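Hi W., the nicotinamide-adenine-dinucleotide complex you wanted:
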Amino acid sequence: MSRQITSVVGGSTVTGGDAHADLNPSDLSDVVLEYGGVDASAAKAALEAAAAAFPLWSRTTPWERSTVLDKAGSEVLARADELGDLLAREEGKTLPEAKGEVVRAGQILKYFAGAALQPHGHLLDSVRPGVEVSVTREPIGVVSVITPWNFPIAIPAWKIAPALAYGNSVVFKPAELVPGSAWELVDILNRAGLPAGALNLVLGRGSVVGPVLTTDPLVNGVTFTGSVGTGRGILDADAPLGRKVQLELGGKNPLVIVDDADLATAVEVLVQGGFGSTGQRCTASSFAVVTDAIHDRLVAAVQERLSRWTVGDARAAGIEMGPVVDPSQLAQDLRYLDVARSEGGEVHGGEVLELGTAGHYLSPALVLGTKSSDTINREEVFGPVVSVIRVADYDEALATANASTMNLSAGVVTTDLATATHFRRSSKAGMVMVNLPTAGVDFHVPFGGRGDSSHGPREQGFAAIDFFTTSKTAYTAPGSPRN
Ligand code: NAD
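Structure:
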């Protein structure tokens, strides 16, 4: 029998619910663990537990909150090999990628342990004589944290850590495909000293528990990362309720490669940005916009690099790309390749691979000869697929890059500082990379997109406080009695 995990509400486990198996996408005969998907009443109970814990947790000192986060961060870092193995096993990214993500989660917990101690607030003179004005930050209350499957521990950490650091209580609903990493993170934080109910875990179907966690009157804020469709649904449902909503959604991220680019840099930036983590990153370089004179040399060099690209079991040594996460994502990848063919694209790779174990293996796909208006250049594929658009010059490349409506990240590869600077200033994306893959971001600076890719304040680093606190401006009359 495989390992069993459960939801955690008010510090207690919740048994029962629909049976779910967490399968290893590298080897479908391997059941990583099993859990019961809870119903709407358990989601409601989790919100009640968070609401009950809020007065206590929000009144803890910054030092107490910092200590819990710091201790949890230390445990995550100390167990990076074991947690990385679990993550690779349930999500399918390679072991180095998975361990790197776990380390990132530990760093995020440490960062917000420090952030909890940072002073924030102002004391000012009013424009009225003798009146004193204070501007303070207060937690927003009960926060629902809803996350996707592609970063099973880092995204939960970058939402839960600031929520707790600034005194909020949390109900966390991870994606159904990756409950193991979520459970470990919650267990580590609870054992690090959180009071019961400050952090609750709801394992259940998004369509069942999601509406409760986003629209119940006990919810004061929703922070969501996932697809544009689900995110827009949450926004529409919450709009009449007027509560804080933060959405990080899909990306359609261009990588511009101009004639003066260093060829070796361009190849590595494209291949790592496009195919790293099996292309299953919101920041993946999903279309390359390449100027005329370098196009053929670049395509030949990328194809040569991809001919040596190793696909296999995520936990096997030397593997560069693990499997696609599940059958529906694989079907989506193949469907987009078919559409690209039907619109005139020339697909290289993108073949389903039969390897030693039954897994969802797909070879990396390069789609040549595409136009900006093609579906493959407009919609998020979320797989190991990079399309290429050939353009005359930099001006056309910039316009083509900016035609994306999911402006999360954009990159340029160039040896010319003027081009790099112009692109950085002119890109419509929320994040710009110069001679770096569009994916790969730091935890201490703001993260987020523009256009259809994002809604609400930025996440991470020094920007996180904007969503997880609300400002209060207080005026005190001169000579107010004190006793
Ligand atoms: P998804 O939208 O299908 O699911 C995300 C989460 O929402 C899951 O936990 C799911 O159970 C839950 N959910 C489903 N229905 C719900 C409902 N009605 N109410 C509330 N919650 C509900 O996304 P996914 O397939 O898990 O993740 C892939 C998507 O996430 C891609 O589009 C990717 O670009 C995006 N993503 C964005 C970022 C970013 O920071 N911009 C980062 C990672 C992933």
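The chain has a mean pLDDT of 97.

W.
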